[in-house]
Amino acid sequence: MSYTYKYPRPALTVDCVVFGYSSSNANLQVLLIQRGIEPYKGAWALPGGFVNMDEDLETAAKRELQEETGVCNVFLEQLFTFSAPQRDPRGRVVSVAYYALIPLDSVQPKAADDADNVAWYNVNKLPPLAFDHSLIMDTALRRLRAKVRYQPIGFELLPPKFPLSALRILYQSILNLDKPLEKRNFRKKILKLGILNPLDEYQQGVAHRAARLYSFDKQKYEQLQKREAVLSFDLF
Question: Distances from the Cα of 146 to the Cαs of 26, 117, 138, 139, 158, in angstroms?
């Protein structure tokens, strides 16, 4: 038996905040598209679009990200639901945002579908964004910066072998600190977690004293996550 809803149904969209990082430039970036259609044609925005009737939210987010930027096989974590009545000039549209953190050199974005262009932008030097995407960006940055203070993340952004200085610079970039993290304190706390393997290898081709290299022990990290709901990882 068919049924008719007496209440209007808002449209549903998804938006993707894809953060990227490369140790070669040590700046946290975000992937943006330049819209090829109205509204906000020509403006920069987060990748995203409308959810189809036969798909769940995560499937829609991954599809839209791939259709507009060519980026795929990215782990997306749900961020927040944005539902201000006037957030979209097309009508009543609710958006569920997702975010991810990936190595910059792991993808080669290419604009397609509704996007005329695609580019990485420094999170501290963003152009004006369409819709309420500035709010979504701010929310994603707050979530990422809060998470990095209590749980080690971002190891997948570094090479398989890295000095502790590279990891410290990564955290400084994510947190956008006014002053650098204290080297000795950072070293002590990160090594105490037991998720780094010291290697009998050192930096090559550096003018200063060569630093020891480390590798990330994913298995130990996953075991640690299972034992503790929240990791004790206060850097300050």
Answer: 19, 31, 12, 11, 20
Q: Mean per-residue pLDDT for 94-108?
A: 94
List strand residue ranges (DSSP E) for 42-195, in order.
44-45, 48-50, 77-82, 93-103, 115-122
Q: What are the phi and psi torsion angles at 228 (to 5°)? A: -130, 130
Question: Cβ(185)–Cβ(145) under 8 Å?
Answer: no
Q: What does the pLDDT read at residue 42?
A: 97
Residue at which a domain ends, from 149, 177, 210: 149
Domain membership of residue 235 (yes or no) is no
CA distance 212 to 124: 32
Query: Per the domain annotation, does 1 fall within a domain?
Result: no
Tell whether 22 and 133 lie within a shared domain: yes
Place of tokens 């050192």: 202
State which residues form the domain around 83: 11-149
Question: What 3-state class would DSSP assign to 221?
Answer: helix
Mind listing the pLDDT tens digit for each residue in 159-186? 889 999 999 999 999 998 878 888 999 8
DSSP 226: H
Tally: H helices and E strands in the chain = 5, 9
C-alpha 110 chain-centroid distance: 18
Would you call 73 helix, strand, or coil by DSSP?
coil
For residues 100 and 158, membership in a common domain is answered with no
Domain shared by 140 and 178, yes or no: no
Whether residues 167 and 55 share a domain: the answer is: no
